[in-house]
Amino acid sequence: MTDTIRTERLTPATFAVFGDVLDAAGDPDRMINEGLCGRFHDRARLDFGSGRAGISIFDAVPRAIPYQFDLVERHPDGSQAFLPMAMHPFLVIVAPDESGRPGRPRAFLTAPGQGINLHRGTWHGVLTPLQAPGLFAVVDRIGEGANLEEFRYDAPWRVIADGPA
Predict the structure, then answer these.
(1) Is the previous residue joined to 133 through a cis bond, with omega within 30 degrees of 0?
(2) For the whole prediction, is pTM greater than 0.85?
(3) How far, in Å, CA of 28 to CA of 120, rounded?
(4) Residue 138 — φ and ψ, nearest 5°?
(5) Residue 158 in contact with residue 4, Cβ under 8 Å?
(6) Whole-angstrom Cα distance, residue 89 to residue 114?
(7) What gap in Å lies between CA 17 and CA 151, rounded to an integer?
(8) pLDDT tens, 76-130?
(9) Is residue 104 within 8 Å of 72, Cβ to Cβ?
């Protein structure tokens, strides 16, 4: 039997337990480059354990809502940031850890221009752009070891869009 979850708006408060929201909301922390560039400073808690930071480019196939999934994964040795290279929203699926297994998932819909940084060990769905191009810069741990755990739920989850805001 498929269980259903509704998308939620991605905000720093609603996402804090899972990671950081990366955006240019509010006033910049300071102006740089002769006052022509706002710097939104130190927006993510990057954590790479014994590894080092690496930047990769991911090109994911777009999906659509409603969206069905049963696979989540986590990276026990480092955080993972997803920075969209297009101004399109994407779907973020995360789940709390419950004694080493993922609990009930939540689905967040980003606003155009928002990225995320998943804290080390956060259960999450696969990269899920909702339109092409599905191009992302990904900052994550490069180092020894697999740094990947996967989990399949016994039954799939179905994500549907939240009602009008």
Answers:
(1) yes
(2) yes
(3) 27
(4) -120, 125
(5) yes
(6) 8
(7) 20
(8) 999 999 999 999 999 999 999 999 999 999 999 999 999 999 999 999 999 999 9
(9) no
Chain segment 4-55, per-residue pLDDT in tens: 999 999 999 999 999 999 999 999 999 999 999 999 999 999 999 889 999 9
Helix (H) or strand (E) holding 71: strand 67-74
In this structure, the strands spanning 80-84 and 123-124 are: unpaired
Classify 44 in phi/psi space as left (phi over 0), alpha (psi -120 to 50) or beta.
beta
Please state which architecture CATH assigns to domain 3-160. Sandwich (2.60)
Residue whose structure tokens are 């990366």? 22
SS3 state of residue 9:
strand
Beta carbons of 90 and 84 less than 8 angstroms apart = yes
Contacts of 21 (CB under 8 A, 6+ apart): 10, 11, 12, 15, 43, 114, 115, 116
- The span from the CA of 55 to the CA of 121, in Å, is 19
DSSP 63: -
Extract the tokens encoding 93: 């699926």
Pairing of strands 30-32, 67-74: unpaired
